[in-house]
Design brief:
The chain is mainly α and 414 residues long. It folds into three domains: 132 residues, no CATH class; 69 residues, no CATH class; 149 residues. The protein has 17 helices and four strands. The structure holds iron/sulfur cluster (SF4).
C-alpha cells in the first residue's frame, strides 16, 4: 500500500474532530480520554458520557439507514473543545461497539457510512489546505495544477480550475473497486507516471479524487477494525453487549428481507434461551417471563419474526395468530432482553436451577444473556483457523465482491 510512512502532521483539533479516523488522530483521541479522565467504564456507562454515546449511536444508525452514509452535518460545534470531544469520542465509541459485535456486515456497513461521509466532506465542504492534508495522508504523493476555465463569454471572468494528479501506483491500487470507464487506467491521461484526475460526470477534479480517497479510507478502517477485534478480550466485548444487540438488531430489521444469517449462530446462544426453545418444543408450558425473554432475545440477535414464531409452534396453548401478534408487538417495541437476575427470579435460568453447568455463566461479569452471546462469538472468532492465504499469483487482485446484501455498492457510473 503506497501510503506515506510518515503522514503530514495535523495538529488542528477542528480537522481531527471532522475526520476522527485519520491515523494522526490517534494521539489526539488518547489525549481526549486522558484530559477528560474517561476510561472504558466511563465511556460505556458514565452518565456524563451520554451525549458521546448518543453521537456514536447516531453515526452507526446513519451508516445503516442512509445510502449516502453518515450525515456530514453535526449539531456539535467542532470549534469548541466540548464539540470536539463529542465528535472524537463519539466516533471512538461507535468503533468499539462495531468491533465488539464481531459482525463483518455491521463493520463493513459502518465503515462504508464513515467513508462516504469523508467523500462528501472532502469533495465539497472543506478548504483546500484541509483537502491537501487528508489527501497526502492517504496517497504517496499529489500534484495540483491550475488551468484556465472554458469561459466563452466576454462577460464571464475566467476563474482557474484546480486539477489534481496522483502517482499511477496509487491509482492502480485504489481504482479497481470502482466501476465505470473513468476508473480504467487506459482511459486516464497519463504523463511520466502521473495520472490526471480530470473532471467528469458533473464532478470536478477534487470530487473525483475524493471518490478515490474514499477507497483508501475504507481499506485503512477495515484493517484497523479487524486489528481491534483481534485485541478485544471477552470481558470488554461482553460489557458492550447491550449497544451491540441494539445495533445488530437495527441492521437486521433494515435488511430483514434479504439477509438470513446473523453474526451470532446457534452455538452462541445462552443456556436460558436454548432451555426456553427446548421446553416449548417438547410441549412444556413456559411461563410468561420465559416467552417474553425468548421473543426479545430473538429480536436482539436479529432472528426473523418467522423464526421467532416457529419456536412456539409446539407450545400447549399455541395459536398462530396470537403468537404472530405478540411477536410483532415485541419486535416493534424493541425491549432489551431480560437480565440474568430477572431470569433467575422467574426460574428461567437453567444454570441457577442446577439443570445445566456452564462455566461462562459462572463468570462474575456475566450479568446478561447478550454478554454470553458476545463472549461466545469472541471465542469462536479467536479459535477459528486462520483463513487460507491466496495463491501468489492472486495476491495483487482486488478483494472479491462481498455478498450483495452485505456490502453497499461502490458503483460509479462514469
Ligand atoms: S447465567 Fe444468565 S446467560 Fe447464563 S443461563 Fe442463566 S440467565 Fe442465561
Amino acid at each position: 500500500m503506497p501510503m506515506p510512512s510518515r503522514p503530514p502532521e495535523i495538529e488542528s483539533p477542528v480537522l481531527l474532530a471532522r475526520f476522527p479516523f485519520l491515523p494522526q488522530g490517534e494521539p489526539w483521541m488518547q489525549s481526549l480520554l486522558h484530559d477528560n479522565q474517561v476510561d472504558f467504564e466511563t465511556l460505556v456507562n458514565g452518565d456524563w458520557m451520554e451525549e458521546v454515546r448518543a453521537r456514536g449511536n447516531l453515526r452507526m444508525l446513519e451508516s445503516i439507514k442512509h445510502d449516502e452514509g453518515v450525515n456530514v452535518a453535526t449539531r456539535q460545534d467542532i470549534h469548541t473543545e466540548y464539540g470536539q470531544m463529542i465528535e472524537g469520542l463519539g466516533f471512538y465509541y461507535a468503533m468499539f461497539v462495531v468491533c465488539a459485535s464481531f459482525d463483518e456486515r455491521l463493520m463493513k456497513r459502518w465503515i462504508e457510512g464513515e467513508a462516504s461521509r469523508a467523500d462528501s466532506l472532502l469533495g465539497s465542504t472543506v478548504d483546500g489546505e484541509t483537502f491537501d492534508l487528508v489527501a497526502r495522508t492517504y496517497l504517496s504523493d499529489l500534484r495540483q495544477q491550475q488551468t484556465e476555465s472554458n469561459a466563452t463569454s466576454i462577460h464571464t471572468t475566467s476563474a482557474p480550475i484546480e486539477l489534481f494528479e496522483i502517482p499511477m501506483v496509487d491509482f492502480i491500487e485504489l481504482s479497481p473497486r470502482i466501476t465505470g470507464t473513468y476508473w480504467r487506467l487506459a482511459n486516464r491521461p497519463l504523463r511520466d507516471g502521473w495520472v490526471t484526475m480530470d473532471p467528469a460526470s458533473g464532478e470536478n477534479s477534487r470530487q473525483r479524487l475524493a471518490r478515490l480517497l474514499k477507497e483508501r479510507i475504507r481499506e485503512v478502517l477495515v484493517a484497523r477494525c479487524k486489528a481491534n477485534m483481534e485485541r478485544l478480550d471477552e470481558e470488554t466485548a461482553a460489557k458492550l453487549a447491550e449497544p451491540v444487540g441494539r445495533i445488530v438488531s437495527e441492521l437486521q430489521s433494515q435488511r430483514s428481507h434479504d439477509v438470513q444469517v446473523t453474526a451470532a449462530n446457534e452455538g452462541d446462544w445462552p443456556p436460558c434461551m436454548i432451555a426456553a426453545i427446548n421446553d416449548l418444543d417438547s410441549g412444556e408450558n413456559v411461563n410468561h417471563a420465559g416467552r417474553r425473554f425468548l421473543g426479545n432475545m430473538s429480536r436482539a440477535l436479529g432472528l426473523s419474526r418467522e423464526q421467532c414464531c416457529s419456536f412456539f409452534v409446539n407450545a400447549p396453548d399455541y395459536k398462530a395468530e396470537t403468537t404472530e401478534y405478540q411477536v410483532n408487538q415485541l419486535y416493534q417495541t424493541e425491549y432489551t432482553p431480560e437480565k440474568c437476575d430477572t431470569l433467575r427470579l422467574h426460574a428461567r435460568c437453567p444454570v441457577a436451577s442446577g439443570l445445566v453447568d456452564d462455566q461462562l455463566c459462572r463468570r462474575e461479569w456475566l450479568t446478561h444473556p447478550l454478554k454470553y452471546v458476545r463472549a461466545q462469538q469472541r471465542r469462536r472468532i479467536r479459535d477459528a483457523p486462520p483463513p487460507e492465504q491466496p495463491a501468489e499469483s492472486d495476491s495483487a487482485a482486488p478483494d472479491p465482491p462481498a455478498e450483495p446484501a452485505a456490502e453497499p455498492a461502490t458503483q460509479d457510473n462514469a
